[in-house]
TrEMBL record:
Record CDD domains: TM_PBP2
GO CC annotations, alphabetized: plasma membrane
Domain ABC transmembrane type-1: 72-284
Any single biological process term in GO: transmembrane transport
Protein name as catalogued: sn-glycerol-3-phosphate transport system permease protein UgpA
Gene: ugpA
Main location: membrane
Domain of life, source organism: Bacteria
Subcellular location, record wording: Cell inner membrane; Cell membrane
Membrane topology listed for this record: Multi-pass membrane protein
A Pfam family the protein falls into: BPD_transp_1
Source organism of this protein record: Xanthobacter dioxanivorans
Protein purpose: Part of the ABC transporter complex UgpBAEC involved in sn-glycerol-3-phosphate (G3P) import. Probably responsible for the translocation of the substrate across the membrane.
Length: 294
């Protein structure tokens, strides 16, 4: 069936329709990114009144900074754990909802709610639940003999921000996985069942391969979310501490730029973060997308 072709009364109409999106992209992405690239080659005074061209000195200083190298390590651990946990739970909940069918309406609504919560609010909710003095989860853990204090323990603090960030993203993954599951032809599953394939075999050999395009899309989105959009959760929950235990790259950009007033170094970190995410995305398209059948 051939798709119906859209026609416009004037040649200029399509360009006028694209103009708002192009303006938003130029103002909110291209312009700030260009300013960050230019600023990364300068050293500014603390008040931003003067600047000196320093070439690649800001980038060289970053690679010699142990705190920046630690932030890279924390960022990759954080991104890997958040992506794995959020996608795994999203697929699990979507599979459960698909198995129930139309009766899962309330269940779906409850799962979507966390996506409407702002990241900073999500961080505060989890901080209160795990508060060492009044948190319900911290009390329950203490009841089974596990001491919890994420204000002092870096590992526990990182665990807390990973759980909060993954919880915030599970709803998004659930929606896409559920839509993907509903699009799988029932005939293929029924034929496999008639051939004696059990639930796990049907999921492994039919469902999971057919969900590959959705999984690949969500992998790219979740990694980008973990590197860029988790700032609000970390700022509200741990503030990057204790020490530098939860300082990921995007939070270090904020801390050095707005608290340390190192605008040139902060701009260089922004450029490095952008390059890291672009490299990760390119690697995914090069090595993973080839295994995806659309």
């Amino acid at each position: 069936m051939q798709a119906k072709r859209v026609t416009f009364p004037s040649k200029i109409t399509p360009y006028l329709l694209l103009l708002p999106q192009v303006a938003v992209t130029l103002v909110f992405f291209v312009w700030p990114a260009g300013e960050a690239i230019v600023s990364s080659f300068y050293a500014q005074d603390a008040f931003g009144l003067s600047e000196t061209f320093v070439g690649l000195a800001n980038f060289a200083a970053l690679l010699r900074d142990p705190a920046y190298l630690q932030a890279i390590g924390v960022s990759f651990v954080f991104a890997f754990c958040v992506t794995t946990l959020a996608m795994g739970l999203g697929l699990l909940f979507a599979t459960a909802a698909d198995a129930v069918g139309k009766a899962s309406g309330v269940y779906q609504v409850l799962l979507v709610w966390p996506y409407a919560v702002a990241p900073a609010v999500a961080g505060i909710l989890w901080m209160f639940m795990f508060d060492p003095s009044v948190g319900l989860v911290a009390r329950a853990l203490r009841g089974v003999g596990l001491s919890w204090n994420h204000f002092l323990d870096g590992g526990q603090a990182l665990t807390l921000v990973i759980l909060a960030a993954a919880w915030k993203q599970v709803s998004y993954n659930f929606l896409f996985f559920y839509a993907g599951l509903r699009a799988i032809p029932l005939g293929a599953l029924e034929a496999a069942a008639l051939d004696g394939a059990g639930p796990w075999q049907r999921f492994r050999h039919i469902v999971f391969p057919l969900l590959a395009p959705t999984s690949f899309f969500l992998l790219v989105v979740n990694l980008t979310y973990a590197f860029f959009d988790a700032f609000g959760i970390i700022h509200a929950t741990t503030g990057g501490g204790p020490g530098r235990a939860t300082t990921i790259l995007v939070y270090k950009v904020f801390r050095d730029g707005f608290e340390g007033l190192d605008l040139g170094g902060s701009s260089a970190q922004s450029v490095m973060l952008l390059l890291i995410v672009i490299a990760l995305t390119a690697m995914q398209f090069r090595h993973i997308e080839r295994k995806v059948s659309y």
